[in-house]
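Preliminary data (for renewal application), zinc ion complex.
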Amino acid sequence: MQTICISIKVITITVIIKAMNNKKILGFVLGVLFVGILVYILKVGIFSQHPQQSLNNSTASQTSATVKVVAAENFYGDVAKQLGGDHVSVTSILSDPNIDPHEYESDVQNAIAVSQADVVIENGLDYDTWMDKLLSASPNNNRTVIIGGQIAPHPLPDNPHVWYGVDNMPAIASAISDALKKSDPADAATFDANLQTFDNSLNPIQQKIAEIKNKFVGTPVGLTETIYLYQTQAAGLNVLTPLEFEKAIAEGNDPSAADVKTANDQINSRQAKVLIYNSQTVTPITTNLQNEAKQLNIPIVPVSETMLGNKNYQSWMLDQLNNLEQDLTLVVK
Ligand SMILES: [Zn+2]
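Predicted structure:
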C-alpha cells in the first residue's frame, strides 16, 4: 500500500512539472488534483467515523478461517457460539425438541461435519455414544474433542445431564474456550473476554435457584426423568418419584410395576405439588402420569433435554426455572 502511494506521488509530481509548460494540461491536472483531494477527505472522513469497523476488518483479515465447531447437542453449540462469536462456525447436531437424544442415531451429514471439524463437543457419559463412533471413523490429531461429562466438576451419580448443573458450566466453557484459542491463537483475548461474560451471565440462573430454595425448600414434587435432579437438588426440592423410575425412563427401559404405581399414587394423592415433566423423553408411562396430573389440576412444568430453538443456554434454563417458581407459587401456600 505504502509503495503504491509513493509511486502515485512521484508520477503526480512529474506530471505537474511537465504541465508547468502547458497551461491547458496544467488546468486539467489541477482539476484532477482537486477531485483527488476531495475523495481523500471524504475517505478519511468515513474511516474516522468508523474506526471500530476498520479495526475489525483488519483483525479478520489477519486471522485464518473461522474455527469449525461441531457440537453433539445444541446447548454446547450455543455456548461455543457465545464464546467464539464471529470467529467460529458452529454445527449443532441435536436440536430438534421432538427427537429424544437418548435414542438418537447419527447420519451421513453428521459424519461429514465431524470429519471437517476443528473442535468437537460431546457430552459423554453414554449420552451420545454415536459421536464417539463418528470420531473414530475420521481420526484427526489436530481436532480437539471436549467431553462435557468428563470435565463437569459436579456430576450426579447415574445422571449424564451435567449441563443442567449450572455449576458445571464454567469448567466446560473454559475447556471450550481453550480449544478455540488453540485453533485461533490470534483471537485469544476475545475468547477470554467472552468467557468472562459467559461466566457472569450464569449468575441470574444461580440467583433464581437460590430464590426458589429460599421460598420452597422441602416442597414435594414429581419428576419423570433424572434430568432435572441437578436443579431440584440445588433448589432443595423433595423429589418423591422413585429414582429407579426416573432412571428407567432416561435409559429407555420400563420402570418396575411397583415404581410406576408409586409414581402414580404420588400424583393421585396430590402428595406431589407439581409434576416436572421431561417433554423430550416421553413414554406411554410418562404420558399417563402427565394426564393424571392434568385431571387433578396439578401444575406441569415441562423441561427439555436440548435447548429450545429461539433461546440460548441461559434464557432456556431461566425460563424453565421461572415456570417452576410460578407453578410452585400457585400451589404452595
Ligand atoms: Zn435424559
